[in-house]
Structure formats: structure tokens, C-alpha cells
Amino acid sequence: MSLSVASWNVNSIKARLPNVIAWLKEKRPDVVCLQEIKCQDDGFPRLEIEELGYNVETVGQKSYNGVALLSMRSIDEVALTALPGDESDEQARYVEAVISTDTGAVRVASIYLPNGNPAPGDKFDYKLGWMKRLRERAAELLTYEEPVILAGDYNIIPRDCDVHDPAAWEGDALIRSDSRDAFAAIKWLGYADAFEQADGRANQYTFWDYQRGAWQKDHGIRIDHLLLSPQAADALEGVEIDKGPRGREKASDHTPIIGTFAL
């Protein structure tokens, strides 16, 4: 048996619920990491999703941010509902849980990393500070020597070939060298980018802006990632960027990325 783990920034769960339900019924991923649910915990459509067989954990926030974990498998432990390192940070951007698998368990986090624009500025400083805290947590998780999947909208374009036109994004927080360096610093700990490991092709995107016909022209960027501990990377069987949901009516500007693991 394989374990499928998906990440999807839904850009408001209430606005996209019909699309999300249809996709869950079609794909039936074992674990789904959602970002930008844009609702408080009691506003999340828990019953509709639980009816599909999912266990649900949310870290919500009114109108902004918010992350969720959906799992067909048992959620053994909700380890964290916030990224450690800054008790004053009230933004809902991180949830981490231990989930049962056929071979034991896997630790999965749903991550909504700050956008950081305009850069430079306070929002960019917050982004870099958040990434430093994420690196510290990622380093700690490696000491557990278990499969770890850090899934989410990282708001980072790792390579020039992950964007339709790098020059058009020059100076943006998603592509600045210090953003990329902070992302690379997490990988240098020993984490693998699942897409780069299993595919790696240029011009494969997970986000297309609503403006200027970006979707129709395939003017996209790859900013949604699955970072894998060595144990998860060893179990990786494949990765798919599913463009189907982006082409539907009232679509999110992101589309799901799905990793399949021998776990």
C-alpha cells in the first residue's frame, strides 16, 4: 500500500468548497494539507469533509491565513498548532501531526509561509524570521529519525526555471536571493524537494495569478512544495502536480501537488 500526501492552498475553503469536495471524491488522497482556509476553526466545513472519511484538524484565523490537515488515516497526535520560536506571532500558519501508516507513522506539517511583500520591509523581515524558525523546527525533526513531510505554500520560487518569466518577478519577495537562501538552508539540513527528486522538469507550476490571463497563457510559478526528511525521501514513489482544479470555475489560484510514498 502507498500513502498519498497532497498540499493545496485553497484560497478560502468556503469559496472553494464545491471544488474541494469534488477533488477529494475524485482523487481520494490519504492526507491533505490545506492552506489559506481563511476561517476560524468553528467556521470550517468539518462535517462535509468528515462525511468523505477524513479526520480533520484546523488552525484557523478570521478572514486570513489558516491551515488544516485532513487524513483518511488515524491522527495519532497533533504535535503543534503553531511554529515555535515566537510566542507573539498570532498568525495561523502551521499545524503538525503524527499520522498512522501501514508501516508505522509519518509526521506531516501543513505550512503557509508568509508572502513577504513588499520587500524590503517589515513583512519581508517577518518572512525571513519565520523561515529561520521553520529551519530550527526542521532541524529538530531530523533528530527523530522518522518520515517527515513539510508540505505547503512556501511562497518561494526555488529556481529560475520554476517561473515563466524570472525578470518579471525581479525584486519580489518570492524570488529574492535571501528568500531562496533561507529555503535552501532548510534543504541543506538534509531535506529533499519531492518535485525535484521525482520530476524536476522546468516550467511546471502550482500557481497562476488571476490577472492578465496567466492561467490561459500558462504564466505560472512553482511555490507549493513537499520537503522530505531522508526517511520520507527514501519512500517517495512519485509526484504529481494536478492542474485540473485550477481550470474549474471559481478556482483557487493554486493547484494541488501530490506525493506518493511507500509508507
Largest sheet: 6 strands, mixed
CATH topology grouping: Deoxyribonuclease I, Chain A
CATH class: Alpha Beta
Detail the poorly predicted runs: none
What is the architecture at the second tier of CATH? Answer: 4-Layer Sandwich
> What would the average pLDDT be, to the nearest integer?
98
Number of domains: 1
- Class inferred from helices and paired strands: alpha+beta
Q: Which homologous superfamily in CATH is the superfamily?
A: Endonuclease/exonuclease/phosphatase
Secondary-structure element pattern, one letter each: EHEHEEEEEHEHEHHEHEE
In words, what does this structure look like?
The protein has seven helices and twelve strands. The protein is an alpha+beta fold and 263 residues long. It has one domain: Endonuclease/exonuclease/phosphatase (Deoxyribonuclease I, Chain A), CATH 3.60.10. The strands form two sheets. It has a six-stranded mixed β-sheet with strand order 3-4-2-1-12-11. A six-stranded mixed β-sheet has the order 5-6-7-8-10-9. Helix 1 links the parallel strand 1 and strand 2. Helix 3 runs parallel beside helix 4. The longest helix has 21 residues. The chain starts with a strand and ends with a strand.
Features:
Deoxyribonuclease I, Chain A; 26% strand; six-stranded mixed β-sheet; single chain; 7 helices
Can you describe this structure in just a few lines?
By secondary structure, this protein is of the alpha+beta class. It has one domain: Endonuclease/exonuclease/phosphatase (Deoxyribonuclease I, Chain A, 4-Layer Sandwich), CATH 3.60.10.
